[in-house]
């Protein structure tokens, strides 16, 4: 398994941008697909997006498509989530996850980070 640590969250205003990072330990990062999920208080964990191991394909939830971008740097063992035009409904803990396939379901990912809080006041 790979160890994951997210960073970059914070309190921003609606319309602002944030870039989240997820740093992975281990030499096998480049073999994993990576996903981003989010969880708001009292709500189910929600798929945000995913990227294949070689960055060839990315997937996004409809709610973030066109505003969020996932990228990765395998040389740095890091995956990023660029979030633009943030809305109050984007407020959540954002978690990254590693798995064998880029999928939209949480059970496809075996390793999870602890998450980073993003707050966009209304």
Describe this structure in words.
It is a single chain. The chain starts with a strand and ends with a strand. The mean pLDDT is 97. A hairpin with a 6-residue loop joins strand 4 and strand 5. It contains no helices and eleven strands. With 122 residues, the protein is mostly beta strands.
Please specify the SSE layout and strand pairing.
Blueprint: E1 4-7, E2 10-11, E3 18-24, E4 33-39, E5 46-51, E6 58-60, E7 68-73, E8 78-83, E9 92-99, E10 109-112, E11 116-119
Parallel strand pairs: 2-11
Antiparallel strand pairs: 1-3, 3-8, 4-5, 4-9, 5-6, 7-8, 9-10, 9-11
Short structural summary:
With 122 residues, the chain is an all-beta fold. It is 0% helix and 47% strand. The strands form two sheets. Strands 2, 4, 5, 6, 9, 10 and 11 form a seven-stranded mixed beta sheet that branches. Strands 1-3-8-7 form a four-stranded antiparallel beta sheet, with no helix packed on it.
List its salient traits.
single chain, 122 residues, mainly beta, four-stranded antiparallel β-sheet, globular
Query: Which percent range fits the helix content?
Result: under 10%
Tally the beta strands: 11
Radius of gyration: 13 Å
Strand coverage percent = over 45%
Q: Report the biggest beta sheet as strand number plus sense, adding barrel if it closes.
A: 7 strands, mixed
Given the helix and strand composition, which structural class is it? mainly beta
Mean pLDDT: 97
